[in-house]
Amino acid sequence: MASSSSSWTQTLLVFFFFALPMLCTSFNPDSPSDRRVLVLVDDLAIKSSHSTYLQSLTDRGYELDVKLATDPKLTLQSYGSYHYDALILFAPKVESLGGNLDAAAISDFVDSGHDLILAADETTSDTIREIASDCGVDFDEFEKAVVIDHVKYAITPLGDDHSLIAADNLIDSTVILGSQGIKEPILYRGLGHIVNPTSELGIKVLSASPSAYSGRVGAEITDLPNVSGASMALVSVVQARNNARIMISGSLELFSNQFFESSVQQSGSDDKFEKSGNQQFAVELTKWTLHERGHLKTSNVHHHKIGETNEPAMYRIADNARYSLGIQEWNGKDWQPYQADDVQLQFYMMSPYVLKTLSHDGKGLYFTEFQVPDVYGVFQFKVEYNRLGYTTLNLAKQIPVRPFRHDEYERFIPAAFPYYGASFSTMIAFFVFGIVFLYHK
Amino acid sequence: MASTAKDARDLFSAMRNAYSKTPTRLKVIDVYILYGLITAFVQVVYMAMVGTFPFNAFLSGVLSCIGTSVLGVCLRMQVNPANKEFKDLPPERAFADFVLCNLVLHLVIMNFLG
C-alpha cells in the first residue's frame, strides 16, 4: 500500500516537473509582453528573407510559430482560450486563410486584447484589405496602385524605381519610436493607406511626403489619385480601447533583410546613409506594438481624510481629502515607476468640481490633497489619462458627500446676530410697552 | 399744478390735525407698532445684502417683529373707544389677550431662532 502511494506521488512529481516550464511560458498579465506569436506567411521563403526581423523577436524571448497562411490546421483559439498572444500577418496575397481563420476571427482576436502586425504589398488581397479596414485603416482600392514619389524616391543599390521611396515623415513620439530617434530615411515599397483623421485611436507613424501619390507604375495618370500627399500613411498604428495594439504597414519589404541592410540616399539630398533606418524603425515599433513600451498599470488607489488612514464611506463638505495611486510602466522585463507631470484627478459629479494635477515622488506614487467642495451629492474620484502611445487609464471611484449635520454648525452664527438682536429687542420693547400702557394716566 | 400741491399740503395738515386728537394711549400703541415694522424692514434689507444663510434665524427675527406689530394692531382696535365693534369688550381683557399672545409668540421665536 505504502509503495503504490509513493509511486503515485512520484509520477505526480515527475508530471509537475515537466509541466512547470510550459506553465512559465504562458501569457501572464503581470508581465504583459506577449510571449507566443503566430507568424502567417504566404511563402515560407519569408522565414529567410525576413530573418533579421524574426530573429530580433526570438532574441527578446518570444516564441514564434511560422506557418503558411493557407495551412488547414490553423487555429487561434480552442474552447475559448487563445493559443497565441499576438499575430503577425506577413501574407498579403492570401485570399482565404486556412483552418478556422477569417477576417472575423482575426477581429475577435484583436477585440479580446491581443496584438496584430499586418503588412501588405502591391499584391494585397481583399481579405487582407478587409482585415485592415476592420482596424480602421483603408488601403487604396485602386488595383495594382503603389506609392510613387517622383521627388523623394530612394537612390539605393537596389535600383531607383520611383516606387521605392525613402520616407522620413515620422511621428514625434519617443514612446512609439524609442528614445534614440531614427535619423536615417526608411525604405518603403508598397501601398499607401488612409487613417480617418477624426479617429482618436489611429495614429500615422510614418506618413508619405507631400509629393507622393498612389498610382500604377509606368501608367499615365488619368484621374486624381485617391490617396496622395502627406495625409497618406505608410505605416500606422491603432491602439484600441481595450489597449490592444495593431501595426499596419503597406510594405512587407520594409521588414526584409535586404531593406534593413541597404544604404539609402534620398533623391534631391546629398546625404548618403550606409544603413537605412528600417531595422531600427521596425524593431522599435514592434517593441511598442507588443507592449514593451508605453504599457501602464495602476495600483493601490487610495483616498482618505488627511489625518486618518482608512477610507471613509462618505465625505462631508469642507473635509480635506487625499488621493493617491501608483502608476507603473512595463519596459519589457519588469515594471518601472512611471514619471509624468500631467496626470490629473477630477472630483466629478456631472462635471469636475475639482481638477488637480497629481504630484509624484519619483517612485511611481502619485498623490494630491484638496478640500471637498461646498456641494453635496455622489461624486467620483476620476483619473482619465489619454496620451499618445500610452495605454489609456480610466479609473473612477464613487464616493458620496454629505452636507453639515445641524450640530456641526457653530452654536451662534455671526451672520445671524442682527436677527438675534432684533428678536430680543422686540421682547424688551414689548415689556416696556406693557409697563407704559398700564401705568399711563 | 399749484392747486394739486396746495391740495396735498391741505391734506397733510388735515391728517395731522385729526391725528393729534387721538388719545395718548393709542398713540403709544402706534409708536410700538411702528418700531416693530421698522425693525422688520431693517432685517429684510440686511438679508437682501447678506443672503439668506441662517434662514431660520431670519424668519424668526422678522416674524417676531411682524407678529408683535399685528398683535399691537389688534390691541389698538380693541381698546379704541371710537370703535363700535368692540364696545362690549373691557380693555383689560384686550390687554390680557395681547400679553398672552405675545408670550406664545416669543416662546416660538426663541425656539426657532436656533
TrEMBL record, chain A:
Where are the membrane-spanning stretches?
Answer: 417-439
Q: How does it sit in the membrane?
A: Single-pass type I membrane protein
The cellular component terms of Gene Ontology attached to this UniProt record, alphabetical and capped at eight, are: oligosaccharyltransferase complex
Question: Where found, per UniProt?
Answer: Endoplasmic reticulum membrane; Membrane
Query: What range(s) does the OST48 middle domain occupy?
Result: 303-441
Q: Give one Pfam family.
A: OST48_N
Pathway entry: Protein modification; protein glycosylation
Sorted UniProt keywords = Endoplasmic reticulum, Membrane, Signal, Transmembrane, Transmembrane helix
Give one GO biological process term: unidimensional cell growth
Give the signal peptide range: 1-26
Please report the stretch or stretches of sequence annotated as the OST48 N-terminal domain.
36-289
How does this polypeptide assemble, per the annotation? Component of the oligosaccharyltransferase (OST) complex.
Q: What does this protein do?
A: Subunit of the oligosaccharyl transferase (OST) complex that catalyzes the initial transfer of a defined glycan (Glc(3)Man(9)GlcNAc(2) in eukaryotes) from the lipid carrier dolichol-pyrophosphate to an asparagine residue within an Asn-X-Ser/Thr consensus motif in nascent polypeptide chains, the first step in protein N-glycosylation. N-glycosylation occurs cotranslationally and the complex associates with the Sec61 complex at the channel-forming translocon complex that mediates protein translocation across the endoplasmic reticulum (ER).
Regarding protein family, the annotation reads:
Belongs to the DDOST 48 kDa subunit family.
Q: What is the name of the protein in this document?
A: Dolichyl-diphosphooligosaccharide--protein glycosyltransferase 48 kDa subunit
Q: Which organism is it from?
A: Physcomitrium patens
Q: Which gene encodes it?
A: LOC112276933
UniProtKB/TrEMBL annotation, chain B:
User: Which cellular components does GO assign to this protein?
Assistant: oligosaccharyltransferase complex
Name where it's found: Endoplasmic reticulum membrane
Pfam families tied to this protein: DAD (PF02109)
User: Record keywords: Transmembrane included?
Assistant: yes
Question: Record's InterPro entries?
Answer: DAD/Ost2
**Topology within the bilayer:** Multi-pass membrane protein
Q: In which pathway does it act?
A: Protein modification; protein glycosylation
Q: Where on the tree of life does the source sit, at the highest rank?
A: Eukaryota
The record's principal subcellular location, in a coarse class, is: endoplasmic reticulum
GO BP term (any one) = protein N-linked glycosylation
Q: Which UniProt keywords apply?
A: Apoptosis, Endoplasmic reticulum, Membrane, Transmembrane, Transmembrane helix
TM segment ranges? 31-49, 55-75, 95-113
What's the stated role of this polypeptide? Subunit of the oligosaccharyl transferase (OST) complex that catalyzes the initial transfer of a defined glycan (Glc(3)Man(9)GlcNAc(2) in eukaryotes) from the lipid carrier dolichol-pyrophosphate to an asparagine residue within an Asn-X-Ser/Thr consensus motif in nascent polypeptide chains, the first step in protein N-glycosylation. N-glycosylation occurs cotranslationally and the complex associates with the Sec61 complex at the channel-forming translocon complex that mediates protein translocation across the endoplasmic reticulum (ER). All subunits are required for a maximal enzyme activity.
Q: Give the multimer and partner information.
A: Component of the oligosaccharyltransferase (OST) complex.
Family to which the UniProt record says this protein belongs? Belongs to the DAD/OST2 family.
Instruction: Supply the name of the protein.
Output: Dolichyl-diphosphooligosaccharide--protein glycosyltransferase subunit DAD1
Which source organism? Physcomitrium patens
Q: State the organism's lineage.
A: Eukaryota, Viridiplantae, Streptophyta, Embryophyta, Bryophyta
Q: Which gene encodes it?
A: LOC112293215
